[in-house]
From TrEMBL:
Protein name (record): RNA polymerase sigma-70 region 2 domain-containing protein
One Pfam family in the UniProt entry: Sigma70_r4_2
Keyword Transcription: yes
Boundaries of every RNA polymerase sigma-70 region domain copy: 22-87
Domain of life: Bacteria
Domain spans labelled RNA polymerase sigma factor 70 region 4 type: 120-170
GO term, biological process aspect, one: DNA-templated transcription initiation
UniProt entry keywords in alphabetical sequence: DNA-binding, Sigma factor, Transcription, Transcription regulation
An example molecular function term from Gene Ontology annotations: sigma factor activity
Family in the record: Belongs to the sigma-70 factor family. ECF subfamily.
CDD domains according to UniProt: Sigma70_r4
Family matches, as PANTHER family: RNA POLYMERASE ECF-TYPE SIGMA FACTO, RNA POLYMERASE SIGMA FACTOR HI_1459-RELATED
């Protein structure tokens, strides 16, 4: 499928198109970040965050460059943001280490509330997924199994487990965004007529 057709289908929110876009570019994004970030966990997280940024920005893609070039430009911006935030945090806390404890203490009640709300949204999102997707995500992120262990547990091939985990992540991300929109709309300050 050519880039323009794929973009139209992704914007139309077709699951297969989103999955195809993911598999077309996530290996390149992972290689890009893994080569530039020391922490594999951070590199994976930023690759996934970048993919979500790409989905958000895709309606604004104007075609002045190839889709691949445009996606890698977004990846470079995400990388710069990652290092900017890391540098600010390191400078701030190295010059004034007492701030880290002070901030933790000051924010702990608010953070505890936000953490509780986030956990509730995660559980609610997991309940919207098919049993297979919810199971594979639980095995990976709650039980801490590797993809190899998941494959053994589900009695499927490594590649099938990896693919199922990837599809489950995409389904979770999509559903999580929907629950966020619903939660925002249900809040007392939401007014659809305000800009």
């Amino acid at each position: 499928m050519d880039d323009q057709s794929l973009i139209k289908r992704v914007i139309a929110n077709e699951d297969r198109a989103v999955t195809e876009l993911y598999w077309r570019f996530i290996p390149k994004l992972r290689r890009f970040f893994t080569g530039r970030i020391n922490s594999p966990k951070d590199a994976e997280e930023i690759a996934n965050d970048t993919f979500l940024s790409i989905l958000d920005a895709l309606p604004r893609f104007d075609g002045r460059s190839s889709l691949s070039t445009w996606i890698m430009a977004i990846a470079r911006h995400e990388l710069v943001d990652y290092y900017r935030k890391k540098k600010i945090k390191n400078i701030l806390f190295s010059k004034m280490p007492f701030l880290e404890n002070l901030i933790d203490q000051a924010l702990s009640p608010q953070l505890a509330l936000e953490e509780k709300q986030l956990k509730q949204r995660i559980v609610k999102t997991l309940h919207t997924l098919s049993e297979g997707y919810a199971l594979v995500l639980r095995l990976k992120y709650i039980d801490g199994l590797t993809v190899t262990e998941i494959a053994q547990e589900l009695k499927i091939s490594y590649k099938a487990a990896e693919s199922k985990l990837s599809r489950a992540r995409l389904a979770f991300q999509k559903s999580f965004v929907q629950t966020e929109k619903i939660a925002f709309q249900d809040s007392p300050i939401w007014d659809p007529f305000k800009p």
